[in-house]
Specification:
This protein is α/β, with parallel strands linked by helices. It folds into three domains: about 5-90, 3-Layer(aba) Sandwich (Udp-n-acetylmuramoylalanyl-d-glutamate--2,6- Diaminopimelate Ligase, Chain: A, domain 1); about 100-300, UDP N-Acetylglucosamine Acyltransferase, domain 1; about 310-338. The strands form seven sheets. The chain has an eleven-stranded parallel beta sheet with strand order 8-11-14-17-20-25-28-31-34-37-39, with no helix packed on it. A hairpin with a 2-residue loop joins strand 22 (about 185) and strand 23 (about 190-195). The N and C termini lie far apart (about 85 Å).
Amino acid sequence: MKYNLSKLSELLNAQYSGDGELILSHLATFDSAREGDITFVSDKKLLTRIGQCQASAIVLPSELQATYQGNALFMDNPYVGYAMLARIFDTTPVLRQGIASSATIHHSATIGENVAIAENVVIEAGVSIANNCQISANVVIGLNSSIADETKIYPNVTIYHSSQIGKRCIIHANTVIGSDGFGNAPYQGKWIKIPQIGKVIMGDDVEIGASTTIDRGALSDTLIADGVKIDNQCQIAHNVEIGENTAIAGGSNIAGSTVIGKNCIIAGGVQMNGHITIADNAVITGNSMVVRSIKEAGVYSSGVPATTNKEWRKTTAYTLKIAQLFKRVKQLEKKIQE
């Protein structure tokens, strides 16, 4: 796939300098770019090394337009330019339209136009798959589920019964949507399973990483709003609600009935208690343990940064003595007051 510089300028709504007819065929990193490639600078530290870059063109901050003389695109945010270029030069394979002979599709299922259904897919009764969807090999879509337009589902995904998936969603390999939440009631020393009779409702433009699980609701539904991005190997428990455009990084676990607001950023490895509420625009840093509601936007942390083993052991030893030290301080305060 090849574009000239002026065409890329048009597609990115960017200004350009240099040869508008310059042909560009690949997007590359700053250090690996060669002739025919376009790259970008989002880290201002790289600006001092522009002369070393071997790319044929480069995406730069708009403030450099008056001084840079080479082949370039100018944008207020070059990183956004990178994201747009990645979409233009995307090499992700697209499934061929049609239904593989080994797919099993119930006669009551409805399949839209231009749909690709690969080998060994199972589509159960009452399922609706809208136009331009891509269903990769070994996917199972359960009873009465619906998949809206232009959604792409990668191999070995399982979507349980009555799940609703919005438009233009991407669900990566080995993910499970709509499995039972962890509902059990203790009774006479045993556990009684509580059937999970809600469902998962996922909005438009949602992306779910590989090997993530989103449980169905117990009574009400698990809700994933428009534009939510969830990374690999996350656990979203029953009745969780995640607001629009919130991003959750890999390995995070959200316990049941927690409500996360809009435009939040949940970093990797965050653990979150159930039945709490997270305000819009909250940022929670990596490996934090969230045990109570967050009522205001801001940055929140609780993880302990790694240090040398020697320092960690010393700090831990001091930590174990905090209660004793506190008691001694209170005693000293009492003596001073007397």
